[in-house]
Amino acid sequence: MRLFLFLAVVVLAVTAAFTAIKAFSAASLPRPNVQRETALDRVKRTGVLRCGYYVFPPVTMRESSGRTLSGLSIDMMEKIGTSAGLKIEWTEEVDFGTWPLGLKAGRFDAVCTPIWPDISLAREAAFTRPMFYAGINAYVRGDDHRFDNNLAAINNPNVTLSVIEGNATYYLAHANFRNARIQALPQNSPGGAPAENVITRKADIFFWDDNGAYDFLKSRPGSIRNVAPGRPIKVMPFELATDAGEGELRDFLDVALQNLEDSGATNLLLQKWERVPGSYYPLAKPYMVPASR
Known about the structure:
Blueprint: H1 2-28, H2 39-46, E1 48-53, E2 61-62, E3 69-70, H3 72-84, E4 87-93, H4 99-105, E5 110-115, E6 125-127, E7 132-141, E8 160-164, H5 168-176, E9 181-185, H6 193-199, E10 205-208, H7 210-219, E11 224-226, E12 234-243, H8 247-263, H9 265-273, E13 280-281
Parallel strand pairs: 1-4, 1-5, 8-9, 8-10
Antiparallel strand pairs: 2-3, 5-12, 6-12, 7-10, 7-11, 7-12, 7-13
Helix pairs in contact: 3-8
């Protein structure tokens, strides 16, 4: 009986050891590489490019009904969709705080209202080639002449700059005017909020492009003015954004934008939508057509 029990224990021990060795060996073996579906894979599989967007007239606008979008970016993305055989879905409205999170979470594939890129934003997103450029100008109250043709005077502790946190103007203010007081508004603030703060004397100056200022001045004539017309503080590109890890989709959009540029469609859209003629700067051609011989 004792011998039987001894043998049974030995058998159980050997079986347990064999099972453990087998499990360890299986865990040690290289596992098949399961590939993650990329954003471009998903777009090709579904035939839909999902766009995040923010309201930024005249690039992206919401009609009074609240249901229809229009503007330069809407026309441009629809042209891309038609050329590529894709449906463009305007999936989610975002602001400067939520768009990186939406991209990373996969709620949409790209931000299709172009963004002014900044090195700080490049940690969160991959940006396409520029669609076009625009100048960022310094604006003050209509009766304020302290900074006329003297942008260096902005860099003063007695001057308050109003910007929206997360916007390229926020980084511009911190990089170029460190001595000024920076009034950073919440990321979900409307684009005209810094202008409101200036005309109500909560701040002295803010940065905007001419097209944004044009819309503001339609309802408040003379309330703000550009302190250095024709001399922007910085010229910024307008670019689409994808998640930082989605280089394939970014490359696809690069080719799509290149095609629109080469066909002349981009320039036609700029002429159609810019509020102030010449305020959007088209891309310079990287080549010259050889003269006939």
